[in-house]
């Protein structure tokens, strides 16, 4: 963290474990097992603890980003295994097109600037309202709306 004070990971886990579980479950749905989800949550808190000195944003947003990335990585690992067995694909209700679309979106999000990623995250992941985001960033509401519009437009572009 910015002030180089070591965090109490037990308190963080206690306070945010349900939040992290919700993020992971909403992404993974029925694709991953409960054990995989538990592993992702453990990895999330481990990476959070390990990288605590690098946190530039608020703790909740940082945890959410780690949880999403860990979940997507696990899904990518499972995709390599699942691709070979069409029977498993059908039983799990797995839709390869949706997964591939998700990977494309993730790649496009990686190309956003840090400011764009943070704005995207606050609005679409954290669920903040435009007025709240504008106030947090000391910006006008219309400026924030325009930035979100440009981000969506950038993500829609075929590259």
TrEMBL record:
Keyword Coiled coil: no
Record NCBIfam families: sigma70-ECF
Lineage: Bacteria, Bacillati, Bacillota, Erysipelotrichia, Erysipelotrichales
Family stated for the protein in its record: Belongs to the sigma-70 factor family. ECF subfamily.
The name this protein goes by in its record: RNA polymerase sigma-70 factor, ECF subfamily
Gene3D superfamilies according to UniProt: 1.10.1740.10, Winged helix-like DNA-binding domain superfamily/Winged helix DNA-binding domain
InterPro entries: RNA_pol_sigma-70-like, RNA_pol_sigma-70_dom, RNA_pol_sigma70_r4_t2, RNA_pol_sigma_r2, RNA_pol_sigma_r3/r4-like, WH-like_DNA-bd_sf
Domain RNA polymerase sigma factor 70 region 4 type, chain residue ranges per copy: 104-155
GO annotation, biological process: DNA-templated transcription initiation
PANTHER family: RNA POLYMERASE ECF-TYPE SIGMA FACTO (PTHR43133), RNA POLYMERASE SIGMA FACTOR HI_1459-RELATED (PTHR43133:SF8)
Domain of life of the native organism: Bacteria
Keywords: DNA-binding, Sigma factor, Transcription, Transcription regulation
Molecular-function GO term, any one: sigma factor activity
SUPFAM superfamilies according to UniProt: Sigma2 domain of RNA polymerase sigma factors, Sigma3 and sigma4 domains of RNA polymerase sigma factors
A Pfam family matched in the record: Sigma70_r4_2
Native source species: Thomasclavelia cocleata
């Amino acid at each position: 963290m910015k002030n180089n004070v070591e965090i109490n990971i037990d308190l963080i886990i206690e306070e945010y474990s349900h939040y992290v579980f919700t993020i992971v479950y909403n992404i993974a749905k029925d694709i991953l097992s409960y054990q995989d989800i538990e592993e992702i949550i453990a990895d999330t808190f481990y990476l959070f603890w390990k990288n605590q000195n690098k946190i530039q944003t608020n703790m909740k947003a940082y945890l959410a980003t780690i949880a999403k990335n860990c979940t997507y990585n696990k899904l990518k690992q499972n995709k390599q295994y699942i691709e070979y067995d069409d029977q498993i694909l059908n039983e799990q209700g797995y839709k390869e097109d949706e997964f591939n679309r998700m990977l494309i979106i993730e790649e496009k999000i990686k190309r956003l600037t840090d400011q764009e990623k943070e704005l995207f995250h606050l609005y679409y992941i954290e669920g903040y309202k435009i007025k709240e985001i504008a106030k947090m960033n000391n910006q006008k509401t219309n400026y924030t709306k325009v930035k979100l519009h440009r981000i969506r437009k950038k993500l829609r572009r075929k590259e």
